[in-house]
Amino acid sequence: MSLEKFISQAVSSWMSDDGPDSDIVLSSRIRFARNLDEFNFPTFFTNGEAEAVIDTIMERVNNSHIPNVEHLEMIKMDEIPQLQKRVLVEKHLISPHLAENGIHGACLLSENEEISIMINEEDHLRIQCLFPGFQLTEALKAANEIDDWMEEHVNYAFDEKFGYLTSCPTNAGTGLRASVMIHLPGLVMTQQMNRIVPAINQLGLVVRGIYGEGSEALGNIFQISNQITLGKSEEDIVEELKSVVGQIISQERSARDALAKTSNIQLEDRVFRSYGILANSRIIETKEAARCLSDLRLGIDMGYIQNISKSILNELMILTQPGFLQQYAGGPLRPNERDIRRAALIRERLKMETKEESGG
Predict the structure, then answer these.
(1) Which H helix or E strand runs over 50?
(2) How far apart, in Å, are the Cα atoms of 123 and each of 35, 70, 82, 171, 193?
(3) Rounded distance between C-alpha atoms, residue 205 and residue 91, angstroms
(4) How far is residue 270's CA from residue 272's CA, in Å, rounded to a whole number?
(5) Cβ atoms within 10 A of the Cβ of 208, count?
(6) What's 228's DSSP letter?
(7) How confident is the model at residue 211 (pLDDT cuts 50, 70, 90)?
(8) Cβ–Cβ under 8 Å, residues 127 and 144
(9) What is the pLDDT of residue 216?
(10) Cα dihedral sign for 198, 199, 204, 208?
(11) Mean pLDDT of the chain
(12) Which residues pair with 209 in a beta bridge?
């Protein structure tokens, strides 16, 4: 398969589409945790109950129409190979928990992959909307429409005092996790992140790596999300996160401006060195690729590099992950083989950009 065709099939809309403040915010996500009141929670249910949850949800979905959603495809975790599960995780469409433990789990996925409804993860339902750029309000609106529709067709586990009941008490209340994936090379280079992260935590938010809890912030990409779900409305949670992220965006732009004024030639040199590594390497590991891609994206955003799409960071941060590399290769690869394939894919992707620019 050609790389062009592979990318067209592999890249979700949040990776390739522009959104507000997309030079810094890569994506916005809203996720609701919900459970059905007639079944034990996934922590305690039987295999039969797990299948009954899937059957119940599918019956409701097939017999009605979710507003503004044209089609949802059912993917059962026990019917796809481990490699395809890994790809879905790398695209942020399912959680590692569902991929690793979801023998009796499933996912309902929209055609544009903005909507993902995980079934039998830590809770019976995880309703997720993933939008490009800084669009938390829009993602919340879309998620609320699906949640309202679902609540008309199934009975949620709900308590007047504690709100929506979840397997983990930290998700009770609204059951809402709002998050943004954000690229902060300026704040990292100016060594401000060590000060900012504790300040964010004090506001009831949490900063994690690219794949959430327990993951690294590869390529200066961080996830910022709410921790508190109980005692606040969904709108208040989102507005508080928007306010903090707005300030971080402003600080990141200021940091980039300061770097351009005080260290312009050094920054430009760093960008083009990373570009050279990406364009010419024959072997490259995940961390080095992420670092160089971050530099390249910064160079594009700051105007040092003109002929490459700024969506390249979104795309290649995903396409160069182990699952995608093996999917593109058509089978399992050893770690050193992945490093070789990663370098080749990046070189080919960059050549596609320069070819399009030259009109070839």
Answers:
(1) helix 47-62
(2) 6, 25, 21, 10, 33
(3) 23
(4) 6
(5) 17
(6) -
(7) low
(8) no
(9) 66
(10) negative
(11) 90
(12) 212
